[in-house]
Structure formats: C-alpha cells, structure tokens
Design a protein that fits this description.
About 45% of the residues lie in helices and about 15% in strands. With about 260 residues, it is an alpha/beta fold. It has two domains: about 200 residues, Rossmann fold (3-Layer(aba) Sandwich), CATH 3.40.50.720; about 30 residues, no CATH class. The structure holds nicotinamide-adenine-dinucleotide (NAD). Nicotinamide-adenine-dinucleotide binds next to helix 1 and helix 6.
Length: about 260
C-alpha cells in the first residue's frame, strides 16, 4: 500500500506547537510533520526516553517537556515553562490517550477512572491551561484526538468510548467559548479509526491471536485498510493550518468509514 504524503511546505514557520503523547504513535507523527513544516515543537509525554530520542532525531527545533496530562499541577508547570522558554504557544494537539479493554461488568471503578483521567481529564486540562497562553500569543488552534469509538461504540470498550465521546462535546464548548470571547482560537476534534501504532499492536497481541485480531480490524474498516500515523497527522496539520481558518467545533472522522 502506498501512503499519500502531502507536499511539505513552511505552513507552520515560527509557530510553537505542543503535542501531548508526542513520544510515540500518532503523536510522534504529528511532531515530525509540524517540525518538517517549520514549527518549534514540544513533546509533552511521560516517556522521557522515547521523547528524547525523537527530539534528537528531529533536531534542535524539537524538545521534550515532561507532562502527565492527567495531572493539573503538571499542566500548570508545563505552561509556565513554555511561557518562560518560548514566550508563546500557537497550536496544541491533545493527543495523549490510553486504551484498555474491559466490558462494563469486568471494568472496575479504578479502570474507569484511569481511562477517563488521561483521555477526558487530560483534554479538559490541556484546553483549560493552554487557552490563556494561546490567546496572549495572538491566537491559534487546538486539535483534540478522540476516536471512531467516540462516535460508535462496542461492548468491550465502554470506558474508552465514553472518554472519547466526552472529548466531542468538550471540543464544541471550547470552540464556542473562544469564539464568544473573541479569541482567535479554533478547536476541533479528529476521530481516528485503527492506526498502526504501539497502542494497536499491544491490543492485537493481548488478544492472543495477533494475525486474527489485525485481520478483524482491517475487515471492520469499509475502506479496506487501517491508517498509518501520518494519515492522522495530515488531518491534524490541516486543522491547525490557515486553510482551516473557518473550521471550529467540527468533527473530522479519519477512520476509513469505521464509524459509518
Ligand atoms: N491507534 C489507534 O488505532 C487509535 C484509534 C483511535 C484513536 N486513537 C487515539 O489517538 C491517540 C494516540 O494514540 P496512539 O495509538 O498513538 O497511542 P500510543 O499508545 O501508541 O501512544 C500514546 C502516547 O501517549 C503517551 N501517554 C500516555 N499516557 C500519557 C499521559 N498520562 N500523559 C502524557 N502522555 C501520555 C504515551 O507515552 C505515548 O507516547 C490516543 O488519544 C488514542 O486514543 C488511536
């Protein structure tokens, strides 16, 4: 399969970008794309080792910012550090997420809270802490990563689906708030289908039959294949760019038809 890669430009020259969960998978693809197109990129993640290797590989415009997105005070410290070091923030990609399968009977309250603390609380905290700095920086764009499972669920991911559905309506409220305040900040949601990342590799391995699990995944996508991380990064970059200047509060499914 050939992955279509957009022509590289200087769309994000001089922009400061924070990608949460940027050390691996979809987040790492976003970090790479923004850096290639001229941005200064911060990798906000809990995996210091992987984040530092990626930053080293991509050059001096990319750096690691330790950040657990479920931690309110860690967000406050991160925004303080960005203000001190870079003086501005233009684009925030709330991408960090965890995916733990368990039916409503098997999942206990700790499971529910763990999944929601990263996937839903993390996105709320990102918007809450970053909006004042993005506004002071002259405006920008927030992209929240949900999931096709935030639009259409199944029986084994109730906590994950609920956390991702929360992102949908939170995004719309944030978009309205920013517009009503006269902030030049747009906020949109991207809903990936299955993407070939460590998250999906682990879920497939944990199922006990990796090949069968991957085949089921591919068959579930009407388009006939699953995404590469760059497919999601291309959509994120579009929403972050001036080409999307009239788009706010929108739902962009990048899921090969999975949620239809
Ligand atoms: N891979 C898929 O098929 C798929 C499908 C739909 C949605 N998504 C969503 O896309 C996003 C990225 O998924 P992925 O597949 O790249 O995942 P991944 O597990 O491959 O990578 C996730 C990254 O987030 C980081 N992270 C986890 N918890 C964190 C925390 N508390 N604070 C900061 N960083 C944290 C991890 O260290 C890792 O670098 C997630 O929100 C996920 O739910 C993924």
């Amino acid at each position: 399969m050939v992955t279509q890669v957009a022509q590289k430009t200087d769309r994000f020259d001089g922009q400061i970008v924070l990608v949460t969960g940027g050390a691996d998978g979809v987040g790492a693809a976003c970090v790479k794309l923004f850096a290639e197109e001229g941005a200064q990129v911060l990798i906000g993640d809990i995996q210091a080792g992987k984040a530092k290797v990626l930053a080293e590989e991509l050059g001096p415009e990319v750096s690691f910012l330790p950040l657990d997105v479920s931690d309110d005070s860690a967000w406050a410290a991160a925004i303080e550090q960005i203000t001190a070091d870079a003086g501005a923030l233009n684009i925030l990609v709330n991408n960090a997420g965890v995916s733990l399968p368990a039916t409503v009977e098997d999942a206990d309250f700790a499971h529910w809270r763990k999944v929601n603390s990263v996937n839903a609380d993390g996105v709320f905290l990102g918007c809450h802490h970053a909006i004042p700095l993005i506004h002071r920086s002259g405006g920008g764009s927030i992209i929240n990563i949900s999931s096709a499972l935030g639009l259409k669920t199944n029986a084994v991911m109730p906590a994950y689906s609920a956390s991702k559905a929360a992102v949908r309506i939170l995004t719309k409220s944030v978009a309205l708030h920013c517009a009503e305040q006269g902030y030049a900040i747009r906020c949109n949601t991207v809903y990936p289908g299955s993407v070939r990342t460590p998250m999906i590799e682990k879920l497939s391995h944990d199922s006990g039959d990796y090949d069968a699990a991957m085949a089921r995944r591919i068959a579930a996508h009407p388009i006939g294949f699953i995404a590469e991380p760059s497919d999601i990064a291309n959509a994120v970059a579009f929403l972050a760019s001036e080409e999307a200047r009239f788009i706010t509060g929108a739902d962009l499914a990048v899921d090969g038809g999975l949620s239809l």
